[in-house]
Design goal:
The complex is a heterodimer of chains A (254) and B (320). Chain A has 254 residues and is of the alpha/beta class. Helix content of chain A is 34%, strand content 29%. In chain A, strand 4 (61-66) and strand 5 form a beta hairpin. Chain B has helices spanning 8-31, 38-63, 71-87, 92-115, 121-140, 151-158, 166-184, 186-196, 198-203, 208-234, 245-256, 267-286, 292-318; strands spanning 145-146, 160-161, 164-165, 236-237. Chain B has a two-stranded antiparallel ribbon with strand order 1-4. Classes of the chains: A alpha/beta (254), B mainly alpha (320). The A-B interface holds A 54, 56, 75-77, 80-81, 86, 88, 91-97, 101, 104-108, 110, 119-121, 143, 145-147, 149-150, 152, 163, 167 and B 1-2, 183-186, 188-190, 192-193, 196-197, 199-207, 263-264, 316-317, 319-320.
Chain lengths: 254, 320
């Protein structure tokens, strides 16, 4: 794979919910190791596009290629198995389950017992590994058996990101990761994203917070009324510039 | 929840009702006439095993967050089919398989109704219950199959192995199976995740619909097992024989949710609660309480358990 081959490539993606068209004919290339900010006003089609990439919903039209090969994500499991993990706004954690249970949800570790084909959960290892992922993210939590509902917002993000790491996801999609957080916790999450990037992972960041976008993104993609109308390197764009571009796009769409 | 600092409130939340249950058992051991006799204790344990096995199935369905209100009627139909075959002199293995088979068929029906037709389990399983009841009466024409049944069949429930009543062994086996499934296997972890947060589990790549079908299927299988044992123990099969067990099974699961893992359906809690309910019924009778007191107590336990679990959940949610 040359560096010019996109890691993820969308062509003509459309998504309709009955008569309502949420995404229209979107082409998008994502390259390895970059942080792409996906911006746009409410109803611009960002979340619908993300749901298609994450396998949560199937596209009405268009194709997705991963490392140059066409793929179909019929379920979140398909996307995860192909190294595309999504961290949703509401985090998609089970509040009453422990940190370790949440990190390994859907990909639990097992060990053989008595007979080679008989495997049971390896709870010890899952706790140790969860600890490792969380400390990688510099999250200050020690007790992996703690239920997630007793964690702060930033710590929950760290748990959600750990799950993406656990799947060894190459592409991590984050939907409004700082929306529900305070200043200090937002800073923690931004650091987490920088760590992911430094680790060579590719991040698609959906955010309403233009300061986050300017702080992190390599490239800005702006959507409005279901279409993509800006796709450019961040360069020296300021938070205000992006906000203006979003509003200008709205005006055009209207 | 680390062992270093144990919150006394958490201890009470976890073990409070279990200790109360233990106190109740002690109370009857001391004060209820004849309660402590070996005969009576064995009877209570045998009685508990029917309820515990049925309630375990309900608990497994509840683990995937589905209500199975058809457990008792599934059991009645399974018992009738089983009794019919024994009565018609088929080998016990055939009758036993048929009882479990009824549970598999109806449990699968419930599962597909809930996940494919997207009918809420409350409605789906009520429908299944009515259908099962209808078939049970159709097969028996309203009367019971009774007779001198082969020991090869009745011994499954009435016999002893290693000095322990077979019924108690069946209960132990069912408990171990359910506990092992939920706590030790990936499927169990997926079932728990599905029940705790359906959408989160789906987004984490778990086949949540399949987990719901497994929960409801197992509920049917446990109902079939319980039915077979009930028929074997009584040497009879009547179309309404398990009907009364529904409320008791619900009570056992809900009371069980106040113990060990507050607010969550759990296997040890379900079995211990089944024992407490049966001890309570038996003890009250021995102390001369009128029969209707049991229903009143049962209702109070159902309501009280849910109130207790709800308050435990609220406390947990606010504790940061």
């Amino acid at each position: 794979m040359t560096s010019s081959t996109p890691l993820l490539s969308l062509r003509g993606i459309g998504k309709a919910y009955g008569p309502v068209v949420a995404v229209r004919d979107v082409d998008l290339d994502i390259f390895k190791g970059e942080v792409v900010a996906l911006c746009g006003d409410n109803g611009a089609g960002k979340s619908s596009l993300i749901k298609v990439i994450s396998g949560a919903e199937e596209a009405t039209s268009g194709t997705i290629s991963l490392r140059g090969k066409p793929v179909t994500f019929a379920s979140p499991h398909d996307a995860l198995a192909n190294g595309v993990a999504t961290i949703y706004q509401d985090l998609a954690l089970a509040p009453r389950l422990s940190i370790a249970q949440n990190v390994f949800m859907g990909s639990e570790l097992t060990k053989p017992v008595l007979l080679p084909f008989l495997r049971i959960l390896d709870k010890k290892k899952m706790i140790a590994e969860s600890q490792r992922y969380l400390s990688q993210l510099s999250a200050a939590v020690t007790d992996m058996t703690r239920p997630v509902e007793r964690l702060s917002g930033g710590q929950r993000q760290a748990v959600a990101i750990s799950r993406a790491l656990r799947w060894n996801a190459e592409i991590i999609i984050m939907d409004e990761p700082t929306a529900a957080l305070g200043v200090k916790e937002s800073a923690l999450v931004l650091d987490l994203i920088r760590k992911l990037k430094a680790d060579g992972r590719t991040v698609i960041l959906i955010s309403h917070n233009m300061r986050d976008v300017v702080a992190l993104a390599d490239r800005v993609v702006i959507m409005g009324a279901g279409r993509k109308y800006v796709d450019r390197p961040l360069g020296n764009l300021t938070a205000d510039d992006i906000a203006h571009m979003i509003m200008a796009g709205n005006a055009k769409a209207a | 929840m680390s062992l270093g600092r144990i919150d006394p409130r958490e201890l009470i939340g976890r073990y409070g009702t279990a200790l109360a249950g233990l106190a109740l058992i002690l109370f009857f051991l001391i004060f209820a006439p004849n309660f402590a006799s070996t005969m009576n204790i064995i009877n209570v344990l045998k009685d508990t095993s029917f309820l515990a096995i049925l309630a375990l199935g309900f608990a497994l369905a509840f683990t995937v967050s589905e209500l199975d209100l058809s457990v008792a009627e599934m059991a009645s139909l399974a018992a009738v089919v089983c009794g019919w075959l024994v009565h018609a002199q088929y080998p016990p293995a055939v009758a036993v398989s048929a009882a479990i088979g009824v549970g598999i068929v109806l449990g699968t029906l419930n599962g597909y109704g809930v996940t494919v037709l997207r009918i809420p389990s409350l409605i789906m399983t009520l429908g299944t219950a009515a259908i099962a009841k209808g078939f049970a009466f159709m097969i028996t024409q309203g009367v019971a199959f009774v007779g001198r049944w082969p020991v090869g069949f009745t011994g499954l429930a009435r016999g002893y192995s290693f000095g322990i009543p077979n019924l108690v062994l069946w209960m132990a086996g069912a408990t171990l199976f359910a506990y092992g499934l939920v706590k030790w296997t990936r499927t169990g972890a997926h079932m728990v995740a599905t029940g705790e947060a359906d959408e989160a589990a789906r987004l984490a790549g778990i086949a949540t619909a399949r987990m719901k079908r497994i929960g409801l299927l197992l509920s049917g299988v446990f109902a079939g097992l319980m039915a077979m044992l009930l028929a074997a123990n009584l040497s009879s099969a009547a179309p309404n024989m398990a009907g009364d067990y529904l409320l008791y099974a619900i009570a056992a699961v809900l009371l069980g949710m106040t113990m060990f893992e507050p607010g969550k359906p759990n296997i040890p809690g379900t079995v211990f609660a089944a024992l407490v309910l049966k001890v309570l019924g038996n003890g009250l009778v021995l102390m001369g309480a009128p029969y209707y007191i049991q229903d009143i107590v049962l209702g109070a336990i159902i309501i009280g358990s849910v109130a207790f679990s709800a308050s435990a959940m609220k406390k947990a949610a606010f504790k940061v």
